Amino acid sequence: MKAKTSRLRQQLWRAYRSLGRTLRTMTPDRSMTPGSFYLMRRKCGKASCRCARGQLHPVWVLTRSEAGRHKLYSVPAEQRAQVRQLAAAWRRYQRARAQFGKHTAALLALADQLAQAQK
Predict the structure, then answer these.
(1) pLDDT in tens, the chain (119 residues)
(2) Of 13, 15, 58, 20, whose CA–CA distance to 38 is shortest?
């Protein structure tokens, strides 16, 4: 009984420390922007253009959801590197947020197990 509670307590503290690492990832000191940054190919609509024959125009875009609708923003060449970094920071935040939820649930489950073992 005593060994089981000691092992659960150690697991609880390990889970708590990993929660701190996840929180540090979730709170970066740089800015971020929600959305996805990617290269999209599209038609311009002119009948005599090369895109009408299948050679589509490449456009770098940032897409995000605003007020429940998807919005596309074309990104100029001089801003692509910055937007790429901001969107990557957002993806890291989203992954860390998902991990935070999993770690928190695991932490609560361990706390419940420890309370049951000490009854």
Answers:
(1) 577 778 888 888 888 888 888 888 777 777 889 999 999 998 888 888 988 888 899 999 999 998 999 999 999 999 999 999 999 999 989 998 998 898 888 888 888 888 888 77
(2) 58
